[in-house]
Amino acid sequence: MRVAVIGAGRMGSGIAQVFLSAGAHVAVRDPLIDPAPAIGRGLRTAQSKGGGSADEALGRLTVGAVPYDSDLVIEAVPEDPGLKASVLAEVEEQVHDGAVLATNTSSLSITELSAALKRPERFLGMHFFNPVPVQRLVELVVTPATQVLEQVRGYVGLLGKTAVVVNDSPGFATSRLGVLLGLEAIRMVEEGVASADDIDTAMTLGYGYPMGPLRLGDLVGLDVRLAIADHLHARLGPRFEPPELLRWMVARGELGRKTGRGFYQW
Ligand SMILES: NC(=O)c1ccc[n+]([C@@H]2O[C@H](COP(=O)([O-])OP(=O)(O)OC[C@H]3O[C@@H](n4cnc5c(N)ncnc54)[C@H](O)[C@@H]3O)[C@@H](O)[C@H]2O)c1
User: Fold this and answer.
1) Binding site membership of 125 for ligand 1 (Cβ less than 6 Å)
2) Which of 37, 106, 142, 209 could form a disulfide with 146 if both were Cys (CB 3.0 to 4.6 A apart)?
3) Using H for helix, E for strand and C for coil, what is the string for the chain?
4) pTM of the prediction?
5) Is 217 annotated to bind ligand?
6) Same domain (yes/no): 188, 83
7) Mean pLDDT, the chain, integer
8) What is the domain count for the chain?
9) CA 225 – ligand 1 centroid, Å
């Protein structure tokens, strides 16, 4: 199979790596960085854990042009609707009519992005999670026009990952539920119901979550959490209104692990 990945940052290089590991030919296009070193490092790590030959897989990587005969093109450029729409429209012209186009957006409307395309029936969201080689879920986000779901479900199976299917709606399934839980946990700290540590322990030991919602917020970045909450608040209404405590922490630069302080000291 032939896959093209547009944008080779954190997500694009991971997506390229897992398709190479699954035996695909992969072309990667990024105007700013050479993706080969990061992908090579990822493939060598996978090899050391029992994966296939990194050198053999790297032999199937090309950098630059998107091949006309690509089966699947995955866009992973920054989260900017105008940039994504123009990249998708441009690449649609460069591949054959039967190619599938996918976006790795984590928050934008798939329906709105599909307005830029001539073949919206061959387009959907393929939401991978970070780090791509480790995370087992791919959220497939479809519009009423999408006709390539079963084909793409097969591609996810080739990667050894699990697909869930979500109709295009704000926050898809993952952010909508994950952010709601995180916001309520912050409101509980704000109201003095319990400490951050006790709220997280309640969910890890009581409900079997691998990580509590406040620790997860610190890892994701509280500024990122706030931006998603603002987006969902605007689209889905008051139940996503960000708590004052979250705004206040972000304003003070308490963003979680990346600044050394959030609900925890890092
Ligand atoms: N980082 C995450 O945890 C995560 C998780 C799921 C989804 N996403 C989504 O994945 C997408 C990419 O995120 P990321 O974290 O990899 O970003 P990133 O900033 O690490 O990488 C984006 C890459 O796109 C490149 N780029 C910019 N303009 C381009 C163009 N016109 N053509 C080709 N490449 C171009 C940049 O040079 C950069 O290397 C975003 O839509 C983001 O919302 C991110």
Assistant:
1) no
2) 142
3) CEEEEECCCHHHHHHHHHHHHCCCEEEEECCCCCCHHHHHHHHHHHHHCCCCCHHHHHCCEEECCCCCCCCEEEECCCCCHHHHHHHHHHHHHHCCCCCEEEECCCCCCHHHHHCCCCCHHHEEEEEECCCCCCCCEEEEEECCCCCCHHHHHHHHHHCCCEEEEEECCCCCCHHHHHHHHHHHHHHHHHCCCCCHHHHHHHHHHHHCCCCCHHHHHHHHCHHHHHHHHHHHHHHHCHHHCCCHHHHHHHHCCCCEHHHCECCCEC
4) 0.92
5) no
6) no
7) 97
8) 2
9) 17
